[in-house]
Structure formats: structure tokens, C-alpha cells
Design goal:
mainly alpha, Growth Hormone, Chain: A, 18 helices, about 0% strand
Length: about 450
């Protein structure tokens, strides 16, 4: 299949994940700690808040996918939503990390709930879903999609490396406390807004693909017709949903508990830098080879290998007994998991969208297929964040304590190792049946024979 996108366009598309992760990684890695240690909201309340918000978020994902499917504008289908949501997302990033001080705790909880629901269920949903769908609408070529997703996740990992390593340091340098968080979020929001603008200007959807998606008959489809079309995808949608839930539960459990693990279990909050670097640097070194591995061994087999590393990595940390060499080895293995899984799972979703279109006689299902997996992301993030809050409460974590008790330390250790390991096992098992590439090839062959 002919390649048509320039390297410049592919690169600029990939930088969109810098903007997304200035929001996503900051919220996923630090908001729980901000709520418990700065806003002084109880861990159990934080956990419940995050779960309820993410469930609402998942519902809006499906709605947003349907809206994008029905959008018809001179800028395309997904692209206008990217630029429309960007300023809202950036403003809410600042607001989320600006819980008012000097007010009653119930008022803090209401403020946190409203702003968290808005950033997750409205702004980030519209932004990230439209950004992901743009890849499907810019090219049909699977190699180009692999290249774009690889660049995208290189940028994502670089941003995660920066955010997880330097956010706490820069908060302190900008004054610390609530004011330090607000000031840093203003900087992050300004950079994210500029990058979203570049992606909007340079990354355009394919006119031919838009014409196909925008035919009069297809634009009249109701949401019930589209949902029925998704159900025709047999068990693949259910498997994909389960994989996304489990993968993001694993990711959020480790990211949200890392600062607690470094500060309390290892005794130095600065260790978050080392823990991040030993995970993300191997990921960055591995990512350029992922398209070649996928070509040689197939996307499905390479992805299965990635999920195996997602089991072994956290498991090594669990059995490390505090040995830094083993902890860092576990992080390296988990980094390989991230490099193999992040781009390839998105490629499989693209294949699944194409598969759903074929088996439903060309019905436009790109938007809602991506929204289902995005729904899985939000549920996984919500459950993962909730588990961190709830289990810290079970471990009797005290935000104001200079030294945590043994049960809190044990829980922080488990949240960073053995519990994520369990979700790694679930990802591997679910992926065994999610060979969507094989199903797509068969569906295309059947269509050609008609």
C-alpha cells in the first residue's frame, strides 16, 4: 500500500503526545499525592472520587466517538475536536492542581470532584480520542501507522521521563505547596497548548478517506446502529476492552504509588528520578526496533512478548527485598514491556477498526472502535487510582506522618510490585485470544471472494 505522509508530518503528529502527557502523566502520577498530601483529602475519599469520575468518563468516550463519526467540517472529522478541546484541557490542568486552601474539607472534595470530572470526562476525552482517531484518518498504510505510533510513544515516554523525574523538584523550586503546583501547571499548560496548535496546522486527514466516511447514507446512522455494528465484532471488542482496563490499571498502580514507594520504602523521594529513568530509557532505546520486530514476528506475537515482560518486571521488584540492583532490573524489564505494548496495541486497535468496517459492509466505525478502547483506558485508570487510595487507607497511611508504619510501607511496596504483576498476567492471557490481525486478513479475503 502506497505511503504518502512526509517524515515531518509523522514527527509533528508524534509530538502531540508531548502535549497529552504533560496532562496525562502529571495527573496520573501526581494527583493522588497532591490530593492526599497538599489538599489533605483522605486517601479513601480520593480513591472513590477517581473511580466515580472515570466511570462517567468512560460513558462520555462512547458519546464522543459517535460525535466524531458524525462530524463533517472543512477541517475533517477528528481534527477540529483536537483544537477545540485543547484550551479547555490546558485550563483544567491548572484548576485541578489548584484546590482552594482555607476552606472546609467538604468544599475541597466538591471542587476536586467537579474539576477532575471535567478534565477527564470532557476535555481529555475529546482531546485524546480525536488525536488517536486522526492517525486512522491520515493514512490507510499499516507501516505508516506503525511509524506514527512509534514516534508518538517515543515522545510520550520522553515526556513521562521528564514529568516523573522533575515535577516534584520544580514544584519545590517554584515555591512548594499549593502555589508551587499551580505555577508549574501554568507552564505545562502553555507548552501543551502550543504543541496542540502545531499538530492541528500540519496534520491533515486524508480527503479520500473522509469522503468515504462522510457519505450521506453513513452520516444518517444512529448510535443504536453503530453499537449493533460493534457487537458484530464477536469477542474481539470484549477482549480489547479487558486488555485496556488491565494494562492501565497496572500502569496507574505503579505510577501513582511510585512517589510513595521512593519516599517511604526506599527513603528518598528523589529516587523517583532513578525509578523513572531505569524504566523509560530502555523503552526509548527499544522503541525504534519495534516496527522491525512487528514485521518479522507479527504484531500479535510481539505484543504477547511485551506482556510477558510486564509480568516479570514488577515480579522482580517484589522479590528484590529492597535490593536496588534488582529493583532497577525490574524497572528495565517493565520498560521493555512499555516499548513493545504501547505502539503495537494501538496498531491492533486500528486493525480492529478496519475489521469492524469490513464485517459491517463499510459502516464507519473508526470513531466508536477507538472510543471503546478509550473507555477501557478510563475505567482502568479509574480503578487503578481508586485502588491506590483505598489500599493506602487499608494500610493505615498517614499523610502528615514523618515515618509511615509497617503496614503502610508493606502496602506501598505491594502497590508498586506484586499487585501490578497480577494485572500483567491478565493482560497476557487476554491477548492470547485477541489475534485481530488474523481475523482482519480473513475478513478481507472473504470480501474479495464475493
Amino acid at each position: 500500500m502506497k505511503q504518502r505522509l512526509t517524515n515531518t508530518v509523522k514527527f509533528i503528529y508524534g509530538t502531540g503526545d508531548v502535549a497529552s502527557n504533560l496532562v496525562w502523566t502529571t495527573v496520573g502520577s501526581f494527583l493522588t499525592m497532591y490530593y492526599t498530601d497538599v489538599a489533605l483529602i483522605s486517601a479513601a475519599t480520593v480513591g472513590t472520587l477517581m473511580l466515580v469520575s472515570r466511570i462517567l468518563d468512560g460513558i462520555t468516550d462512547l458519546t464522543m466517538g459517535w460525535i466524531i463519526n458524525r462530524t463533517r467540517s472543512r477541517f475533517g472529522k477528528a481534527r477540529p475536536w483536537l483544537i477545540a478541546s485543547a484550551p479547555v484541557l490546558c485550563l483544567l490542568l491548572v484548576m485541578v492542581f489548584s484546590v482552594p486552601s482555607g476552606v472546609k474539607i467538604n468544599e475541597k472534595v466538591v471542587y476536586a470532584t467537579v474539576t477532575y470530572v471535567l478534565i477527564c470526562a470532557v476535555a481529555y476525552t475529546a482531546s485524546n480520542l480525536s488525536y488517536s482517531i486522526m492517525c486512522n484518518l491520515m493514512t490507510r498504510n499499516i507501516e505508516e501507522r506503525n511509524q506514527m505510533n512509534t514516534i508518538r510513544f517515543i515522545m510520550a515516554f520522553l515526556t513521562q521521563l521528564f514529568v516523573n523525574s522533575y515535577t516534584v523538584i520544580w514544584v519545590d523550586r517554584l515555591g512548594g505547596g499549593s502555589a508551587g503546583w499551580t505555577r508549574l501547571m501554568i507552564i505545562y499548560a502553555a507548552v501543551a497548548m502550543a504543541i496542540f496548535g502545531l499538530v492541528f496546522v500540519f496534520c491533515k486527514e486524508d480527503p479520500e478517506m473522509l469522503d468515504e466516511q462522510n457519505s450521506a447514507e453513513k452520516m444518517k446512522l444512529q448510535i443504536k446502529d453503530i453499537l449493533q455494528g460493534l457487537m458484530n465484532g464477536k469477542h474481539y471488542m470484549i477482549l480489547a476492552l479487558g486488555i485496556y482496563v488491565c494494562f492501565y490499571m497496572q500502569l496507574i498502580l505503579m505510577n501513582s504509588s511510585m512517589v510513595y514507594f521512593a519516599r517511604d520504602v526506599l527513603g528518598k523521594k528523589e529516587m523517583t528520578i532513578s525509578l523513572t529513568m531505569f524504566m523509560l530509557i530502555p523503552s526509548l532505546l527499544m522503541l525504534p526496533f519495534v516496527p522491525k520486530l512487528a514485521r518479522r514476528f507479527g504484531v500479535h506475537r510481539t505484543l504477547s512478548l511485551g506482556y510477558l515482560f510486564g509480568i516479570i518486571g514488577p515480579g522482580v521488584v517484589w522479590f528484590s527485598n529492597g535490593d536496588l540492583h534488582l529493583i532497577f532490573a525490574g524497572r528495565i524489564l517493565y520498560g521493555i514491556n512499555q516499548a513493545l505494548v504501547a505502539p503495537l496495541v494501538q496498531t491492533k486497535v486500528s486493525q480492529m477498526a478496519d475489521y469492524n468496517c469490513i464485517i459491517n459492509n463499510g459502516m464507519p466505525l473508526i470513531g466508536v472502535t477507538n472510543s471503546v478502547t478509550s473507555f477501557g483506558v478510563k475505567i482502568g485508570v479509574g480503578l487503578g487510582g481508586a485502588m491506590v487510595g483505598w489500599l493506602l487507607q487499608v494500610g493505615q497511611y498517614q499523610a502528615t506522618a514523618a515515618v509511615q508504619n509497617s503496614s503502610a510501607l508493606a502496602m506501598e511496596n505491594a502497590l508498586f510490585s506484586i499487585i501490578p504483576c497480577v494485572f500483567g498476567v491478565l493482560c497476557f492471557l487476554l491477548n492470547l485470544g485477541w489475534d485481530i490481525g488474523k481475523a482482519f486478513d480473513q475478513a478481507r479475503s472473504d470480501l474479495e471472494m464475493k
